[in-house]
Each structure stands twice: as C-alpha cells, then as structure tokens.
Design the sequence.
C-alpha cells in the first residue's frame, strides 16, 4: 500500500526526521549519469585534445550536447521525485539541499580552473581550443573572476567576459529549475490538496510556454528553451506512479524537445553537425532513461550509488584537467587524450571522496536528517530518496 505524507502545517520547513515520506524506489541511475558525464568529457577531449581523425569521427554527433539535454530530463524526474517523497512542504530545506549539493564543488572547480589558466599563461601555452588559441585580454580582471565565481546564478552570464569553466551554463540552467521548483513548493503548500506542488508546477510550466517559444526564436533568456526536458522528466515520474496526466505531460514534452533539437544553433566546431546522428543518439539515451525510470535494483546499489557520486565532479573538473593537458603538450595525440581521461576520472574520485563527506555532514545537520541512509525515524529511512537520486548534474537529493 502506498504511504502518504503526514499532515504538516503549510508553513513548516521541518527537518526530514519530522516528515513522513511516501515510498521511494531506488532506480539504477548512477551508472547512467556517469555515462552522460563521460560523454560530455569525451566530446570536449575529442574536439580539442584528440588527433584530427578522431575529432572528425566524433565531432558531428555532439555526444556531450545530447548528454546534457538528457541530464535536464533526468533532473526533472529525480527532483520531482525528491519533492514528492521528502520536500513536498519544505521549500527552504529543498533549496538548502540543492545549494549544498551544487555550490561547494562548483567553487572548487572554478578556482582550480582559474589556477590552470594561470599555469597556461605562466608557461606560455601555445593553444587551448582548436577554435581559440589563447586566453582573451581581461580574463583575469577582478570583476570577471568574481562573476565566474557566481556564474551559476541565473542570468549572471551577461556580465561574464570569459568563462573559466565553460560548462557552467548547464549548471546555471539547473539552478533556474531549482528556483522554479522551490517556488512551486512554497505556493503549493497553500493549496488544500496533497498534490499542490504538482498543480502549481503544471500551471507554472504552462505560463512559461511563451518564454520557451521566444527562446527558440533567439529572444530572451536561452535557458527557457530547455523547459520541455524538465517537463518530460517530471511527467515521466508521475507516469511511473500511475498518473494519467504524467503520460500526457511526457508525451507533449516530446514535441517541445523535438522543436528545441531542430532549432538549436550550430555549435562552433571544426566539423559540421549531423542532425540525424544527434537525434538518434538523443532518442537512444532518452529511451534508456525511460526504461531505467521503471526499474528498481536491490543488488549493486552501493556500486551504482558510488558511480553516481563521481558524476558531478567529473562533469566539472575535467575542464581543468583539459587546460593542464593543453598547457603541457604540443599538438594532438592519443596518448594525451587517454591520459586526460584517466586523470579526469581520478580527480573526480578524489574530489568526491574528500569534499562530499564534509558537505554531507553539514547538509544533514541543516536538514535535520539523512536521505537514503539512516534517518531519525525508521519509516523515513525506508521511504526517502538516497544519494543516487541526484538532480541531473549534482550528486544526490
């Protein structure tokens, strides 16, 4: 029998130990998320570290671009699940969790990337990207550095002269999604129905459709173009719980995702993109995610959870590894390409093992309990989502 949340005052932001959550299913997303992060890394390394034959072979398919879009859809799923299971009336706890998951690794990654760029300048590096041989003047200006450190704040990119961590844009889109979810939680608590969050979220998505349309035309903030991906993930979650409206939302979102995919501006690269190839890769990844959403594993959870743990660090830190590799080498070789992959994985593991325990301890102290592990009350421990239920780019819920 499905467990329902206890009645909690609408204004509460009580710790998880005081809120009974509905049943939670562990889905094997950890390894899948690591695959997506690896695809992002491989696209970058194939473009700017690998020899030309490999660059031209992989370049047209935008494997990293497709992976990021799936990340957005996956984020829509797991964040909706986390809210439904544990944060339905706890907007403050939700945003605290998200900030603690995202910000520490991000700040360290930006700082490391700035140092790596400084090394490039100090050692007179000969090339960074194939499309950009060096670092533009003013990159190390205090204002630009400061803007990079707050680069995940939505819309702040308009003041960034040079990105030390180019992939920050995707984390910034995630943060905008989290703010929208927090707004839906806070507003939904004022509705009498248990599904207040879902109703407010649905209304919010409908209200944002005009901004989505404008973003496709190249007007306004581009982050609204990714609305259908998050909507698909949210709809898929409710579909797994047997909600007919979830299937409708996911189906309609497919149309929006298709429009965004075919209207994407061509990226800057040495080879022309292959739209059919990119669509095929996206379809396979989306199908895999959808299948995993209906699965539950009992064996191998520890391994799957660990693989999910290193996803966000790998996504962030591989760019700093790339800068160091570009600084210390001349030309393009398979040796450099392979060494950069191994180094990126090693750095991600070390970063996860060293930083995450401190972050988790502080997060649990603020939140008042642990998700997916030992909670204050046994029924909560059995019902709430664990670290593998991560928002697309971050480690857990």
Sequence:
């Amino acid at each position: 029998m499905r467990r329902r949340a206890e009645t909690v005052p609408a204004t509460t932001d009580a710790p998880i130990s005081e809120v009974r959550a509905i049943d939670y299913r562990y889905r094997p997303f950890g390894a899948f998320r690591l695959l997506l992060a690896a695809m992002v890394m491989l696209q970058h390394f194939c473009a700017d570290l690998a020899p030309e034959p490999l660059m031209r072979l992989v370049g047209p398919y935008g494997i990293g671009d497709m992976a990021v879009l799936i990340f957005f859809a996956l984020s829509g799923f797991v964040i909706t699940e986390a809210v439904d299971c544990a944060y339905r009336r706890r907007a403050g706890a939700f945003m605290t969790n998200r900030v603690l998951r995202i910000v520490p690794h991000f700040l360290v990654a930006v700082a490391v990337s700035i140092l790596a760029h400084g090394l490039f300048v100090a050692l007179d590096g000969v090339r960074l990207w194939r499309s950009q041989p060096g670092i533009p003047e003013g990159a190390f200006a205090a204002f630009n550095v400061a803007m990079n450190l707050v680069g995940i704040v939505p819309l702040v990119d308009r003041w960034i002269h040079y990105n030390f961590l180019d992939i920050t844009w995707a984390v910034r889109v995630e943060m905008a999604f989290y703010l929208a979810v927090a707004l839906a939680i806070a507003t939904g608590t004022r509705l009498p129905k248990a599904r207040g969050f879902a109703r407010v979220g649905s209304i919010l998505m409908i209200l944002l459709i005009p901004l989505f349309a404008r973003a496709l035309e190249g007007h306004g903030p581009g982050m609204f173009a990714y609305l259908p991906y998050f909507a698909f993930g949210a709809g898929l979650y409710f579909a797994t719980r047997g909600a007919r409206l979830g299937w409708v939302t996911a189906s309609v979102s497919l149309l929006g995702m298709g429009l965004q995919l075919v209207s994407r501006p061509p990226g800057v690269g040495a080879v022309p993109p292959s739209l059919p190839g990119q669509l095929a890769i996206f379809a396979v990844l989306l199908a895999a995610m959808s299948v995993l959403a209906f699965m539950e594993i009992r064996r191998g959870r520890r391994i799957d959870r660990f693989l999910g743990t290193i996803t966000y660090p790998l996504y962030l830190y591989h760019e700093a590894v790339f800068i160091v590799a570009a600084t210390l080498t001349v030309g393009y070789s398979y040796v450099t390409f392979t060494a950069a992959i191994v180094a990126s994985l090693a750095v991600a593991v070390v970063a996860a093992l060293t930083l995450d325990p401190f972050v988790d301890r502080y997060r649990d102290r603020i939140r008042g309990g642990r998700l997916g592990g030992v909670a204050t009350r046994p029924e909560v421990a059995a019902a709430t989502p664990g670290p593998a239920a991560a928002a697309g780019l971050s480690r857990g819920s």
Residues 88 and 187 are 11 Å apart (CA to CA). The chain has a mean pLDDT of 84. The chain has one domain: 33-383.
